[in-house]
Amino acid sequence: MLELDSVCRSYSGRQVLHDVSFSARRGRLTGFVGGNGAGKTTTMRITLGVLDADSGTVRLDGTPVSPASRVRFGYMPEERGLYPKMRVAEQLSYLARLHGFDRHEARRRAEALLARLDLSERGDDPLESLSLGNQQRVQIAAALIHDPDVLILDEPFSGLDPMAVEVVLSVLTEQAEAGAVVLFSSHQLDVVERLCDDLVIIGAGRILAEGGREELRERHGTRRYELVTEDDAGWVRDVPDVEIDESAAGRVLFRAGAETAQQVLQRAAQQGPVLRFTPLLPSLSEIFKDVAAQVDATQVDATEPRTEQSTHHLEKEVAR
Ligand SMILES: Nc1ncnc2c1ncn2[C@@H]1O[C@H](COP(=O)(O)OP(=O)(O)OP(=O)(O)O)[C@@H](O)[C@H]1O
Questions:
Q1: Looking at the predicted complex, does its ipTM rise above 0.85?
Q2: To test ligand 1's pocket by mutation, which of 9, 16, 207 has the most ligand atoms within 8 angstroms of CB?
């Protein structure tokens, strides 16, 4: 397990990470989400040791991470860092050689990864001649070339078409299934929602929520319910403590607490046949809005967008 414990960091006197603590488990895909400037890249760079924290620790399996243990880390930076004019396969072999593999093994690894990422036919082409999406696949191959134990990827899915997302996802899933920690940042909530097992939400340099995807959906956001009845269900509108999202003839989509929702169901059953009653869990974007909306206004820094503020009570919740 990779753990960050009370990591703080300032740039030129401005604190951008405030006691950042979270964990990413082996065998799971952990999505790290937050708006622009929330602190994702800074956190990842500290985890990798390319940037120092002002305070706090990063541990892997309970042991503070050292330069020696970071050799087993793989990183795909946001500012993609390969050589544009170098041939793709040659570049990957070169990186494998830097990790200590002999020429034969380096070439084998490069070819296997190119095949895995559907890029075998582009191995002899210079990187810059590939489309941006394919260049990104090469970046992912570069991060994986030494079969890392901890894989950290900054926005790996941005700019990929749906087919490429699936290819990259299956590669990352395989890596996780082999026991690696896989942590990836993203601001595409719909993509993260579909792809990750666990989630860490950061805003204005503070962890706002973390946990399993389903657990967070259970815990956050107002539960919605869909009621479909044979007869008109317009009466739901008049039930106290019910907020209607959509209503048409026999179908109502409403928000309510669990008890009120049960009362609605009972009343609907008394009135006639109930064709469907479904609790709907909030989507990740709704959770994100929910945690951002609970921001403590006293923490507002006028220079940052609203979604990037902090909240004391969310911090307490995360600390539980
Ligand atoms: N080298 C730097 N010097 C000064 N401030 C910086 C530096 N790097 C980042 N920051 C600031 O730190 C904060 C966090 O930035 P960071 O890049 O970690 O966020 P992010 O969540 O990765 O954002 P994005 O999704 O836009 O890439 C921002 O306010 C940013 O302006």
A1: yes
A2: 16
Domains annotated for the chain, with CATH where assigned, are 2-218 (3.40.50.300), 222-280 (3.30.70.250)
Tell me the pLDDT of the chain (320 aa) as tens digits: 999 999 999 999 999 999 999 999 999 999 999 888 899 999 999 999 889 999 999 999 999 999 888 989 999 887 667 888 999 999 999 999 999 999 999 999 999 999 999 999 999 999 999 998 899 999 999 999 999 999 999 999 988 888 889 999 999 999 999 999 999 998 878 888 888 999 999 989 999 999 998 888 887 766 789 999 999 999 999 999 999 999 988 899 999 988 999 999 999 999 999 999 998 888 888 888 777 766 543 344 433 433 333 333 333 333 33
Residue nearest to atom 4 of ligand 1 (CA): 11
C-alpha torsion 99→104→110→112, nearest 10: -120
For ligand 1, whether the C-beta of 187 sits within 6 Å is yes
How many Å lie between the centroid of ligand 1 and the Cα of residue 184? Answer: 16
Among the residues of the chain, which ranges form H helices? 40-48, 67-70, 88-98, 103-116, 132-144, 162-177, 189-195, 213-219, 258-271, 284-293, 312-319
Minimum CA distance residue for ligand 1 atom 26: 36
Give the chain's length: 320
Please choose from 41, 43, 51, 184 the residue to mutate so as to test ligand 1's pocket, defined by most ligand atoms within 8 A of CB.
41
The 3-state DSSP class for residue 82 equals coil
